[in-house]
TrEMBL record:
<dbReference type="Pfam" id="PF12130">
    <property type="entry name" value="bMERB_dom"/>
</dbReference>
<dbReference type="InterPro" id="IPR050540">
    <property type="entry name" value="F-actin_Monoox_Mical"/>
</dbReference>
<feature type="domain" description="BMERB">
    <location>
        <begin position="13"/>
        <end position="154"/>
    </location>
</feature>
<dbReference type="InterPro" id="IPR022735">
    <property type="entry name" value="bMERB_dom"/>
</dbReference>
<keyword id="KW-0503">Monooxygenase</keyword>
<feature type="coiled-coil region">
    <location>
        <begin position="23"/>
        <end position="50"/>
    </location>
</feature>
<keyword id="KW-0472">Membrane</keyword>
<keyword id="KW-0175">Coiled coil</keyword>
<keyword id="KW-0560">Oxidoreductase</keyword>
<protein>
    <submittedName>
        <fullName>MICA1 monooxygenase</fullName>
    </submittedName>
</protein>
<dbReference type="GO" id="GO:0004497">
    <property type="term" value="F:monooxygenase activity"/>
</dbReference>
Amino acid sequence: YPTWKRTLARRARECQMKRFCRAQAIQRRLEEIEVTFRELEQQGIKLEKLLRDENESPADQQTQWTNQLLYLVQKKNNLMTEESDLMIAVQELKLEEQQCQLDEKLRSYMNKEDTLKTPEDEKAEQEILKQLVEVVNKRNVLIQLQEEKRLSEL
């Protein structure tokens, strides 16, 4: 088993572990965001009830409650933006995993000597190459989407 094959296999495993760790971190953050959404929702409900029920309370108290409510809305919008960014990252991770699997398959076909390849092998190699290009294009679209989003936020 040549050294370069072992090195490629080790690097593929390392990349897979990095993707797995990133996916776990994203999942944890999405769960945290969900919990925070619920907390913000409860706080917002309380503030709305205070604003509706306490018509005779001082104006500065109502202003303070309104400001708190607006702050909660802003915080929720920021979390929604972060959540959408994380969802894009999840899609990107999936495409990255697909790309690695296709790379591995393609490499196995390309390492085969041309004289030993059957027409089916060549057809499969072309199909994998086509799929690989599609995955790379999808990843490119996601990256462009993130860049446009980042520029629009600025």
